[in-house]
Amino acid sequence: MRLRLPLDQNFFGKGLVVLLAVPALLLPTLVLCYIFWQAAPVLSWGFVVGATESAGFGMADGIFPQLLGSLLLAVMACVIAAPFALSTALYYRAYASHRQQRLLMVMFNMLQGVPPIVFGLCGLVVLVNLFSWGVSLLSGAVVLAIVVLPLLVLNTLAALERIPQQYSEAGAALGLSTGAIIWRLWLPESGINIMTGLLLAMARALSETAPIMFTATVFSGVVWPDSIFSPVTTLQTHIFYLAQEGNDAQVTTIAWGSAAVLVLLVAAFGLLSRMLQKIGAH
Asked: Is residue 64 classed as helix, strand or coil in its secondary structure?
C-alpha cells in the first residue's frame, strides 16, 4: 500500500530522503575510485601473480604470496566453522526449546558484537602459546573461524527459515523422522542459500586484519606454507606494513595496489553470493 501525502509534504520528504541518500552512495563510490586511481600504476597481471621471497615485501615482483595466504586463511576458517554453524542452526530449528532458542540467539548476537581483536588476543594466548601451535596458518584459521561462526549460524538459520513450513508438515505426515526431514528436505532445499552464506563469511574473513596479525602472519619470506603450522603472509597485513612506510612513494603505491586487489577479491565473493542467491530464488 502506497502512502499518499499532500504534494508539498511529498516533495519535502522526497527531497530529504535524496539529500541523505546521495552522500551514502557517493562517498563510498569516491573512495573506491580513489583507491583504484592510486593503484593504477602498479595494477597488472604480473603484480597479482608474481612472487617475491625474503626481504622484498612484495615490492619488486608481485603479491601472489599475500593473495594466496589471504585465501588459504579464509577458506580454512570457513571449512572449520561450517560444520559447527550448520549443526547449531539445525539444532536451533529442529530440537531446541523456545528458551534455548532465545538463549542461542542472544549468545550469537552478542558474539557478533565482540571486537575481532579480542579473539585475536585469545588466540595468541591459547593457540599460539598454550597449545604451542605458534604463529601459523592453523592458529589464524581457527581464530577466523570463531570470528565468522556467528555470521554463518545466522545466515544458515535464515536459509532454513526460507523453507516453507508445508514441506516439513508434509514430511511428518508421510511418517518421516526429524532426521529424515533434515536430510531429505531441509538440506537439499536450503543448500544454495547456505552456500551463499558461506561465501559471505569468506568475504568477512578476508576483511579481518587484527586477529591474524597475532596468530598467523609474517610480513615476508613465505611464498607457500610448509604445513598448517607454518606462518603465511596476507594482503591485509601486507597493506598494514606498507602503509607504515608512507615516506616512500613507490611503497605507498604498492600498498594502494594491494588494497585494490583485496577490494576486488572481497567483491568477487560478494558477487558470487548474489549469483547463488538469484539461482536459489528461481
From this structure: helix
Q: What single string gives the DSSP state of each residue in 201-241?
A: HHHHHHT--HHHHHHTB-SSS-SS-SSTTS-B--HHHHHHH
Q: Which of 125, 138, 280, 107 is nearest to 216 (CA)?
A: 138
Cβ pair 219, 238 in contact under 8 A: yes
Task: Using the CB atoms, write b or e for 72-88: b if 16+ within 10 Å.
Answer: bbbebbbebbbeebbeb
Domains and CATH numbers, the chain: 61-281 (1.10.3720.10)
110-125: pLDDT as tens digits: 888 899 999 999 999 9
Please report the sign of the dihedral spanned by the C-alpha atoms of residue 44, residue 48, residue 51, residue 55: positive
Give CA separation, 137 vs 113, 213, 215, in Å: 25, 11, 8
162: DSSP letter: T
Overall pTM surpassing 0.70 (yes/no): yes
